[in-house]
Amino acid sequence: MRNMDVRRRLTLLAVTIAATPLVVGGCTAGQREAVKPGHGKAAAAPSVTVTPADRTKGVPVSAEVGTTVSGGKVTAVKLTDDKGRPVPAQPREDGSGWVPDRPLENSRTYTAEVTATGDSGRTTTQKTTFTTMAKSTKPTITSELYFTDNQTYGTAMPVVVAFDPPIPKEARADVQRRLFVKTDPPQPGTWSWMSDGKQVEYRAPDFWKSGTKISVRSALEGLPIGKDAIGDADHRATGKVGRQVSLEIDNATKQMSVFREGKLLRKVPVSLGKSSTPTSSGKMVIMEKFDHTIFDTRGSADPYVVEVDDAQRLTWGGEFIHSAPWSEGEQGFTNTSHGCTNVSAAAADWLMGVTQVGDLVTVKGTEVKLDQGNGFTAWNVGWDEFAKGSALPVPAGLKPTHSATPHPGAVAGGSAPAPAPSKSNTGG
């Protein structure tokens, strides 16, 4: 009987030991580990680091939830405000963080809870609470997004953001990380900065495919920019790409060739800039269209004020394609304009019905070259040169499908404000 009591006590002790969960040494404040039952030695739980760090104060309202995981991957992120309300956020493509859909509010406390799961199924949850800064008194850098919601664009349309004052070189990577472009179907690209920091442009290696949906977010509100400035606003827009249209203007022949889907529609006689005010040669993009506008160059060496119809802007400096009934006798023969491309009233009216903002316009054979940044000049350089302007690494596999820039008549696609920049209606 005594031996039986001893055996019972030993059996009970063994069951108790077997039921005790294995505790992995090492813990972090706010971190919890969940262990799934298994056989043999349990695999280590993933390690998670979250930013902002717990109890951080004075966090910018542009903050995102940064995640670093070892031995697993993030499987859940929960962000709530100090009233327990969820704050929607989207993951970065590289998994480095989650970006709130809207800027956070000033002087508020937020809680982020990040869960990572390892290959074995074990999970680790890290929790952090942080407080945002009071409203900043630093001067803002104004940003303008040249991409409008619900608009249809041409296949050469870059996404353009302009800044006033310019973004200093050392701050461009931080700004670029807050500029987001999504395309459907996917056509990844990159951003490229103008050397003066007044403008940054986004395009893919090839022209957009017709029907592509482009969603843009310039999430700069509250972003610290350099030591002494802060971002001004959060801009969003979603547009789509329409039919392929391109124009080629040749100074030698004084003709404009108009292509749609790779086919020549029509040739139009033109009069370009006279020798004292030449038209720029290069690859431009139609920036905006006016049924009626006024060119006003008062204050310049050649002042005039003239009303024009059917005008399409090509540069910030004031080069347009527009109706010029006064020069119809010279069109096709002589250059008489102040830098614009003059066409007949009938041709200008016809063009307005054919073109879209974002269509490629190539001018060749004139006395001067287009200055990079004078308009939407993303296609005025080859892909390799364009990619050099990125402040962040560009994926090595991102290359054009064509060995050279397509002829303007080629079908696009293939197998991503004043005073900065200066904007004026000074054409003629």
Distance between the termini: 115 Å
Based on helices, strands and strand pairing, what is the structural class? mainly beta
- Output the strand order for the largest sheet: 14-15-12-10-18-17
Tell me the count of domains: 3
User: What's the CATH class label of the largest domain?
Assistant: Mainly Beta
Shape: elongated
Oligomer, anyone? single chain
Using the CA coordinates, give the radius of gyration: 30 Å
| CATH fold descriptor of the largest domain | L,D-transpeptidase catalytic domain-like
Q: Mean of residue pLDDT?
A: 87
**Sheet with the most strands, sense and barrel status:** 6 strands, mixed
CATH architecture of the largest domain: Beta Barrel
Low-confidence stretches: 1-30, 403-422
Number of helices: 4
The named CATH superfamily of the largest domain? L,D-transpeptidase catalytic domain-like
| Range of strand content | 35-45%
Assign a percent range to the helix content: under 10%
Q: List how many beta strands DSSP finds.
A: 29
Biased composition (Low complexity): 406-428
Pathway: Cell wall biogenesis; peptidoglycan biosynthesis
InterPro entries: Big_10, LD-transpeptidase, LD_TPept_cat_dom, Transpep_catalytic_dom
Biased composition (Basic and acidic residues): 82-95
